[in-house]
Write a structure and sequence with these properties.
The chain has helices at about 10, 20-35, 50-60, 65-90, 125-135, 165-175, 190-195, 210-215; strands at about 1-5, 40-45, 110-115, 140-145, 150, 160, 165, 200-205, 225. By secondary structure, the protein is an alpha/beta fold. It is built from eight helices and nine strands. The strands form two sheets. It has a seven-stranded mixed β-sheet with strand order 3-2-1-4-8-9-7, sandwiched between helices. The protein has one domain: 3-Layer(aba) Sandwich (Carbamate kinase).
Amino acid sequence: MVTVLSLGGSIVAPDKPDPEFLSSFVRLVRQWLAQDNSRKLILVVGGGGPARAYQSAYKAVVPDGDNDQADWIGIMATRLNAQLLKAIFADICPGDVVYDPTKVDIFAGRILVAAGWKPGFSTDNDAVYLAERFDAQTVINLSNIAKVYTDDPRNNPEATPIDSISWADFRKIVGDEWIPGKNVPFDPVASIHAQKAGISVICAAGRDIENLSAILDGKPFTGTTITG
């Protein structure tokens, strides 16, 4: 049984790597895997604070810079975060960090770690590719928000949280275009891909370890389910 977890870079490295969170996360993952030897976990990690910092520097120096160049900067940050996770799980993650999710044939060990692939979308889309490849019906998307809202609550005080939503309605919220560094609950390109592939996504707060444990165990949880 393969579970795919898209781990927002802002959870792993909000400004720099967060050892306290990583310790709690690793402890939960190891305990969960130990409960059932058939369980396998794919971790797809974003770029977080370092990606935003370097992309901001690029845009400050080259205001009309190319989106592909900004994406490549973010991709490199995802690869650094992914290498950190691979090192942390080295004893149960024997494979190299995955850069191209379309070229993964073997899942050795208990954990597979993946990073950014190429410009045009975020690591959320890589997670959908890997879910397809290993027959996972759901991607767990962890970020710094507990639920999807009807609008950005930072700008609209009338925005309300959503427990479940269809892909069609979710895409009305996030649109269909990817811009490097775009701050949305789930990448618009990945949303199109997931809808076509029939894959559901659970969006939840990444730092809530107890809630993540409930999601992994199939228990009631706080978050938003996108499906259909």
